[in-house]
């Protein structure tokens, strides 16, 4: 069976009836005033798309349903005596795809029917308007006639009549429009059948076909909706809101979809059809106005809203039409809402006992919280962006464009907000990023240096804005023929990747007591711990305020930057720089003390130095050019020494080079200095009455013997420090080989932390520095990869390594603590995966801590978080 | 029990008795004239080393054995009446470690014994010489006294006497030497005990301790001998070859160890102890001379040689001493031999039915064949090398040093052999490598471009000679204060990494009919197929002559080099270079035709373009410097365009960048052109009556969908070509993710070929361009890694991916053919692993084909090839 009357369909079966069809069946079942009709199932659509024709029995079933409908309404399709039945034919997929597919209204009208319709309505104008609307839509949707001609005809008629809108045309005008439309159709060698049954069959197949049109496919790809689902098709008796000022049509929500406040909210347009509301030509009235004009309809509507909200236990979005004395409900669905509203509605409904807390948690998409936690561009701003880059770190920021980190600090100190604009950033720029409101780069992906650091600091970032040509030396950038110079103000939106000229009004995030409550509930159900990746005291404090239960990753390399760079360089240039090392230990001790103090009582995992040494030296090309330009006879000793060192350390593939534990093996003095500093910080914290919980982590291990070698080195210094509390020493699992050898490595590590960024790079053989620009973005756009594996962990490939290493690591050492500290630690879809893999915690950038808490709760509730549950 | 008399020990138990002890027990058992004695087992040594003292019962067992020895010989240790018993105390490990551990001779002598010894020998000189030798050795070995003082004393005595050698000193001189030696010992606050039992115990523990001395440990590391084995200790009655001209000592081989010819071969030194033969002070006589002087001893020795060779079924190395009327056999072992001799002996012994063919195959180390297949530096050349780099491609080469590929071609064409010297080579240098006899680079490891290409062409290569400073522009290189200019002649030895100034005499490899026979036997037993990595017709012919059963990897990138580079550049710089592509197709068609013709009837796997595009463009730094130096006002358009392109294509980590299948996705026109050319070549071969077996391989696949995407592209062109024979299309497995997803990928691939170079890079997270220099060499030297994973496949990590992909790939597609085409395909240890994993074939550089054939046979015979079986 392919056809189901609203009065008999199963309102819970969205798979078969689509969202709209299920809603109509439900509302019919609970006694709401729904215009009668029937639904052709998604199965019919799938068979039509697969086989190129509808199932043999379909038209018989449609005819029978049409006859039942005529019996129920007392009207007949194509009736020339008595009130004629007109139909709407609408798509309705399982997941809402608003406006993506086709609709035919007023179906059943023809030259014979238009007269009886006018008689029934007592309104010639209405009848001819219905006819011309039908011809126009049918021609466009079913016959694929170019509809610009129709607009031209209407425009001509309006000019002739000297009016602005179609409603002001006369019945004669509309008749003339209808006839001219029919001529256009004939000229295109097409024909609109007079037989209403024929019209119906053609409209149904057109609706089914529209599942595969270009914009529907694009929408599904963007929203990750399965192409194989198909759409249902709803055939329903037309009701008319355009029968005069006592009629009208509207949309309402059972709660405020912007704030979540428990007050109904809606728009109403008298003497109009639904499409007029959508078109936005006339200003709509508020529900309060309806209460004044038609108190009985308003009261009825309020009652319906209550019924529906109680039925769905959720905020509903309702379309209604008032046809003279009757209120009709045309559609309902669970309403879209802002993140803020979602949180408030979920918490309030749970407090009202409408839903349980688990349901409340699942009602809020973790990723949607981002919008609540960062400044955003004020709503209603409709300015064309200068360009669009990657949405690398959420939030909006306005400020003076500056082109160097030093300049960012200067301008910020002079009192102006700044946006740092760079080709790409590197660890040298940290102080500039700290001073800026946001950062804009023309290169680098969503895991580039700028992106990672900005997310860590909770700053806005747009990266990889490839249309931008940055001239850092000249202090300007250009997009096409627009040039922005240092000192000009720009605005960036890191949540969408948009870049604007000038200062746009920003809205700060509002505190949400409901969010605090919801996250508290999340903490009660989640099993995964949530820690933060934070490198300094202030970031750690931010993370703790957001609920982080420790630091899963403190990178120590920034401690080598800024003022300290000359010290670090002198160590790299001469291995025996004892004094320089002592200096560094002193400075790092302060860093670690700050970090441990901010996270007092909670674990703080310090990762020993990871990046290749040449990152601490100047750029090789710059040095070579400088050397070339030196005047004859000048002293080049120092420069040559630097060039030699940079050349010696230059690597073809630095990502796979001398970094991480390899540095610890080849230059043990660096790791020793870091551990000395960390242990001294622990001692200081203890002396100050604190409860420091330091853990040390060795990066980039690929073979157990390099781990044991360095662990021994580290342990010696721990032992020599005189500190008596246990200091766990663990390793990152970020090289595929380490995952494959997890059992052996676990024997020598107190804990594992998956570095899924590097693990993805190596397992996939893609460099995050280059891949997005070079091919990855195109791969995702072309559907060769389902998603960017740096955004969502690749569960079948990289994930298999995670699964294997977790299983074998825990088998080898049952109390092995396993977390993840890569970017994926803040991605809800990935968090659900890590939960299933049995990890102990995730660690993410501080602003994503609330998101991770909620995502971990979703995971524990057994829900996959990768799809909206709404 | 720790002590075994030679007459009761188990001669097959080398683990317990060591090689020497087992040989002595065997020879005693088969009735050869062995001086009696006993062996302390390796177990005693291991316990001594582990516990710091010998097992409690050991000295009791030694005393009992000494008493049995006295009873058997009728002599007594420390005897003052009657002939005294003197002992030798020698180490003897399971695997021969010649000269690495300690020995004490003439043990048992003291002030009381020296007189009776002189009486027994009738020779004062002999007795005092024995005494001074004992004191000298005991002081050095047991007491660790610096022995330079002893040499000075002997030197003084020789001067005083006006003679050149110690043998010409008088008995008085030797007595005086002994006394002075004793004073040196006393001055060092040490003492040599008079009690022979005490001497014996001290000598035994000294021998055990010598297992752990520095040179022994180094030797074991180099020869990959387990440090835990320990050594046995052999205590044996001294016999004397220095009792006059009727006595003597010598070494002989049952066959010629240099050529393998079945004639006995040896050295004999009259009136001497064994150490004098080793010292090489006096010229030795040949066995023929012994036959003349002492025909009865010679005949006896020949009989012994026959007995031993038959017993061991192998060529034996025998030490003997003639003590007046008696021939004594002191030691035997299976003799070391050259590769050529090993092959000849194995084949001839099998033909003589002494051994079976399996044993013959296992007698030859696959890697040793290298020395037979390439020119080498003539023996006896003892010149200090200028420097030593990496042994990157075997063989020796002499020629004029040149510093550019073009110059290499010019000089070669003028009639001189050349050695190309470069900082590093790149694909631009191919024609220079082809013209040169060998290549020397200061950078790059054993899998660098120069190394890989040289091995493929069978040319000598020394890479990564880090002491060398190459100034290509100036046409010279320097090592310390030695400068070598273009035009100077140098010699390199790619088998050892040595670099010499000047032309050294080279020996060409000699044809070996026995090798042909042996490899034929190998082909009969091996299960793995052996193919070659070859990129052009001549290489393919060489490979086929060496027995390759097809081409496992034909790289196509060199086809883009040389004359064709401008065409390729124009394609890269403008995507729509239709005409340039057509040109390229024409040229590549010739390449492919040549390759398919050379391998007619055998499979030829052509890998589509793999390297990143920027490899085809000039160096970025060069371009930037050139741009900087251009005169104001000159036209920079062309250069700027090139700089833009190079900058656009520049990648931070090119190894993980836009290459392989990613190129095929992003620039489909390149793959399409290659496939068109390959199909046209197939058509030509068929038209010429040939039997081309083309297969196409997609590199760097990490996700099944990128494979299916490109396979579709490729298949379209195959279908359009009109060629009707099947063209399998497969993929490389060289990205960890591909291995982890082998089942899914196998569904879309006709075959797999493991690219273990890249797989090692990614799985280990190490870049072969940088790693050796940066840390890998140090890792191996420090024992953090057991071996360089680019030389021998990492079985536990990378190997686990191979195992998993093979198992799951074959499960998904049972007829999936799986090979390996990385460098490991020519490494015997890796080949044994691939055999165990159930692969179908290995593919290696043409000169390693014979090695791979033999190694595959070893693998099939169930032997691990990673340890000498001798």
Give a brief outline of the structure:
Two copies of one chain form a homodimer. With 870 residues, chain A is of the alpha/beta class. Chain A contains 34 helices and 33 strands.
Walk me through what this model shows.
Two copies of one chain form a homodimer. The first copy, chain A, is 44% helix and 17% strand. Chain A is an alpha/beta fold and 870 residues long. In chain A, strands 14-24-23-16-17-18-19-15 form an eight-stranded mixed beta sheet. Chain A has an eight-stranded parallel beta barrel with strand order 26-27-28-29-30-31-32-33, surrounded by six helices. Chain A has a five-stranded antiparallel beta sheet with strand order 1-2-7-5-6, with helices on both faces. In chain A, helix 6 packs antiparallel against helix 7. The longest helix of chain A is centred in the last third of the chain and has 21 residues. Chain A is elongated. Chains A and B meet through helix 23, helix 25, helix 27, helix 28 and helix 30 of A and helix 23, helix 25, helix 27, helix 28 and helix 30 of B.
